[in-house]
Specification:
Layout lengths: L1 E3 L5 E3 L8 H4 L1 E3 L10 H11 L5 E8 L4 E8 L5 E7 L17 H19 L4 E5 H6 L1 H33 L1
Parallel strand pairs: 6-7
Antiparallel strand pairs: 1-4, 2-3, 4-5, 5-6
Length: 172
């Protein structure tokens, strides 16, 4: 079962209709026990997620695989979208790092990324990855991509909701 990590300091956040009252009034931040929270993650949250007014959990835990996703963003319909912010060197950005010269840590990170990709795919949770280079050097492109992602997710949720209502109405 997946649940957000609930440790650490919290910051007030306006209530959202998509989640319970207890969880919607706070955005949870926490520093990962082993690796901490990177400056890149902090900048991404401040420059993109907060500016878009998105409701999210930072360091979202997938307990059955023992891994954390950088962010789990909740749409207005209550569905989840996972976001990973990948450092160019640590996650071996092909435009920055020669694939034939990866060190053991980079190989391990690529392996873990594949596990996380499969986990999200098997559960039908969209997962989006953003490279450090794009976040730092092309923020307008990242912002436009995020806007389109959440517009599409909201449209999907509305279509599904309408579809379910049609079926419920027929049964009555």
């Amino acid at each position: 079962m997946i649940q957000p990590r609930r440790k650490g300091k919290t910051t007030p956040k306006k209530a959202s209709n998509s989640r319970s009252k207890a969880s919607s009034t706070k955005r949870r931040y926490f520093t990962h026990d082993k690796v901490g929270t990177s400056k890149l993650e902090q900048d991404f949250a401040r420059d993109f997620l907060d500016k878009l007014g998105l409701d999210y959990d930072w360091q979202y835990e997938a307990r059955d695989i023992g891994r954390f996703y950088d962010y789990c963003v909740y749409t207005k319909s209550g569905s989840k979208v996972l976001i990973e912010v990948d450092g160019d060197w640590y996650h071996s950005n092909p435009s920055k790092v020669d694939e034939s010269k990866l060190n053991p840590m980079q190989k391990h990170n690529k392996f873990v990324d594949k596990i996380k990709d499969k986990w999200a795919l098997m559960r039908g949770i969209p997962l989006y990855r953003f490279w450090e280079n794009d976040i730092r050097n092309n923020p307008n492109m990242v912002m436009e991509e995020l806007k389109s992602i959440f517009k599409v997710e909201e449209k999907k949720a509305l279509l599904l909701e309408k579809k379910n209502k049609r079926h419920i109405n027929r049964i009555k």
